[in-house]
Amino acid sequence: MTKETRAVLEGGPEDLPDRIVSATAPGLDVKIPFRGGYEHFRATKRHQETPEGQLPVYEWWERTELPG
């Protein structure tokens, strides 16, 4: 059984609904579906204290659009 990793998201769209999300594995990029595309976040070496405890911080680095 694997333990779910949680992460704090920084940057990207201001109206992104969730800033604490699941991350598939520590250190791997997080891809969030949002408004017909994906917001991409990369791991940093920083951590932030949250109501869920100390979590790794992921910074926004790009958006990709879905075809359509």
Biggest sheet: strand arrangement: 2-1-5-4-3
Structural class: mainly beta
Q: Could you state the order of secondary-structure elements as H and E? A: EEEEE
Number of H/I helices? 0
Number of DSSP-assigned strands? 5
Largest sheet data: 5 strands, mixed
Residues in β-strands, percent: over 45%
Tell me, what's the shape?
globular
pLDDT below 50 for ≥5 consecutive residues: which ranges? none
Q: How helix-rich are the residues, as a percent range?
A: under 10%
Q: What is the average of the pLDDT values?
A: 91
Q: What Rg is obtained from the alpha carbons, in whole angstroms?
A: 12 Å
Report how far the terminal alpha carbons are from each other.
Answer: 38 Å
Summarize the structure.
The protein has about 70 residues and is an all-beta fold.
Would you kindly provide a written description of the structure presented here, covering whatever features stand out?
It is a single chain. 0% of the residues lie in helices and 62% in strands. It has 68 residues and is mainly β. The model has no long low-confidence stretch (mean pLDDT 91). The protein contains no helices and 5 strands. Strands 2-1-5-4-3 form a 5-stranded mixed beta sheet, with no helix packed on it. The chain has strands spanning 5-10, 20-23, 30-34, 37-50, 53-65.
